[in-house]
Write a structure and sequence with these properties.
Blueprint: H1 5-12, H2 18-30, H3 32-46, H4 52-58, H5 66-74, H6 79-90, H7 95-131
Length: about 130
């Protein structure tokens, strides 16, 4: 499968889906011309020559904010924004946003567990006097 300079740029930023990253890495092992192209792309970056797409990816301009990801997780985003966040996570498969969403899920689960433990402790403490009689 042919690789564009944008693919090579995204590879350097680790912004490709994992399968595509692995594919490209394997191709780079055997294809000298592809290695040369990657060297040219890397040289352009080092020289300060950047495409609009590369800047967009590096600055994550299309990524939803962490607050928007949290709102998506809670199901409180309006339909248009929620559709975009879902598209960004599932179709674009942004690994940074997927990791951020997973972190938010973990935090949410931890917070819920903490609330349950506190509630049980309060129930036990409030009924302890009744149990001793």
């Amino acid at each position: 499968m042919p690789y564009t300079d944008s693919d090579l740029d995204a590879f350097l930023d680790e912004a490709l889906p994992p399968e595509r990253m692995a594919e490209l890495e394997i191709a780079l092992r055997d294809d000298e011309a592809l290695k040369d192209r990657l060297t040219v792309v890397l040289g352009r970056r080092d020289a300060g020559v950047h495409s609009l797409g590369a800047i967009w990816r590096r600055r994550r301009m299309s990524c939803p904010s962490r607050e928007q990801l949290g709102s998506h997780l809670l199901g409180v985003l309006d339909l248009g924004h929620d559709d975009y966040v879902r598209f960004h996570l599932e179709v674009v498969a942004c690994r940074t946003c997927q990791a951020s969403l997973e972190d938010l899920r973990d935090q949410h689960s931890s917070a819920e567990e903490e609330v349950v433990v506190k509630r049980r402790t309060r129930y036990f403490q409030s009924s302890a006097g009744y149990l001793s009689k």
